[in-house]
Amino acid sequence: MSVNDVVIPKANTRGRVIIASLVGTSIEFYDFYVYATAAVLVFPKLFFPNADGVTQLLSSFAVFGVAFVARPIGSILFGHFGDRIGRKGTLIASLLTMGIATFLIGCLPTAQVAGWTFWAPALLVVMRFAQGLALGGEWSGAALLATENAPKNKRAIYGTFPQLGAPIGFILANVLFLVLNLTLSAEAFSSWGWRIPFLASAVMVIIGLYVRLKLVETPAFQKIVEQGEVSKLPIGRVFRTSWWQLILGTFIMLATYVLFYLMTTFTLTFGTTAASIDDAKAAAVKAGKPMTQAAIDAFVPGLGYTRNDFLLMLIVGVVFFGIFTLVAGPLAEKYGRRKSLIVITALIFVFGLCFVPLVAGGFVGAMAWLIIGFTLMGLTFGPMGAFLPELFPTNVRYTGSAVSYNVSSILGAAVAPFIAVALWQAAHGSTWLVGIYLSAMAVLTLIALFLSKETKDKDLVELSS
User: Fold this and answer.
1) Residue 76 confidence (pLDDT) above 70
2) Which domains does the chain have, with CATH numbers?
3) Residue 97 CA, distance from chain mean position
4) Strand residues in 303-409 grouped as ranges (E)
5) Residue 279 in contact with residue 307, Cβ under 8 Å?
6) Cα–Cα distance measured from residue 400 to residue 247, given in angstroms and rounded to the nearest whole number
7) How many angstroms separate the CA atoms of 332 and 41, rounded?
8) What residues contact 216, with CB distance under 8 A and at least 6 apart?
């Protein structure tokens, strides 16, 4: 059956749109953050046991970055089907891919098991790649589901609901890790407890599938089916007709990505690293694994919080992320996407310059650092659910927004934790270079925003030529 033979169904209800876009991205981001948390807490020692502490961490972050390499490939794959056969089926496929990959990570043997020194990290890379493929197609589909079903003058507000899945997924993943840390011994958690969040994703995927199977296609996609304007090769058309929008969208997302992965992955590493070499030595002796001379020579100080204490601090910060994601929608609807993001990105630039005085302020300073960072994250992430899709015509919108979003993930998110750790070490424990890095990325995003146009009043059934 061709797309022209599809029977046009009734429209989605408002509640179904909100729940399906929110639930789906919450599950996707939960799965993604489960890995991100484990990449800091347990994977360095479980999958790279023969390396020193710093190399273990960098190796774990390198595998973490594999997913970001996969995401643009996923954006092309899922974008093709999202623009070719529809949003609904593509969203279901991306959810299944992420869920299966995450569940299988929970089943993997570790490199500490005899005979698995090579295969365990290799299979982890494969599963991580699959996670990246899935997330490459998930975000754009959820954003289109929300915005293409939104009433007039409500697109930015509806567009915040898939965005809200990011803080919800983060909180779910880290609360579960926190509960496991509090209820299991360190040995039990390292042995088998870390697997529970990965295996538990199966339950969440079933719930997400139930919601998404009840969806019908968006009005905008129904319109291009009726007009016979479905693109046969969306990736070719989007590069031919919307290449400038692809570049702008990529750099518009850059500061958002860098900020988020600094505030989550890097801060967890920095926050839970011992504040002095003496503290680090004492902790190592207590754990029965005294530091080697190489580890002592490579040591750089962090904030010195316990894992559980800092996870709680992060969760508090992410609550502000969720609140201000919702706040960002009405602001972008009232003042426009472009103007709102220019102001917020300028504040991100200033925030980067304030890393050192905030971090040096003890618990109050560290908590302020997290709250301010996550507040800015919500304000910049919220409008993206509407702004990026609005840059592209309907028949290449899934592909265009997905490619921009996920190519930006390579330039921003994939390398951000790795670069931040390297800069932190280069500065001998100070965060001033990390802050400068964030501010520099904010400048690039500001340039892209100044070169872009406002999309608030754009017709979402406009077609590319």
Assistant:
1) yes
2) 3-451 (1.20.1250.20)
3) 16
4) none
5) no
6) 10
7) 37
8) 9, 10, 11, 12, 88
